[in-house]
Design goal:
- By secondary structure, this protein is mostly helical.
- The protein is built from four helices and no strands.
- The longest helix has 21 residues.
- It is elongated.
- 6% of the residues are buried.
């Protein structure tokens, strides 16, 4: 320290965030996941959440092509997960979504809003 090797380091003079809060044994892991914006859900649960979010967001899609592309991307993730499994979390029973049925839901949602 006398040589000044620790002077002007990032965060100098700032308190360490969360140091005085209550912690469980995984506090550091949870904080790292949050900082790195990594998924905390196992893939089988994350794909279900993404399916639900897609269905909720249907009215926001501007074109049928955008809806089809989003559903196809989701279906590819579902097929990959069903084919190769998940390294963690529960197994998935989610099947590929019916693109035409979801497009029909989108059309209904768009026409109901106008």
């Amino acid at each position: 320290m006398a040589r000044g090797e620790f002077d002007r380091l990032p965060g100098t003079g700032k308190p360490i965030a969360g140091l005085d809060g209550p912690h469980d044994e995984l506090w550091w892991v949870k904080d790292k996941l949050r900082r790195e914006e990594l998924a905390t859900l196992p893939p089988s649960l994350a794909v279900r959440r993404d399916r639900d979010q897609l269905l909720e967001a249907l009215p926001t899609f501007r074109t049928e092509a955008a809806v089809r592309a989003a559903v196809e991307e989701l279906n590819e993730r579902i097929r990959r997960l069903n084919r190769y499994g998940s390294p963690s979390g529960p197994p998935t029973t989610l099947m590929a979504q019916d693109v035409d049925a979801i497009v029909a839901r989108w059309r209904t949602a768009v026409h109901d809003d106008t």
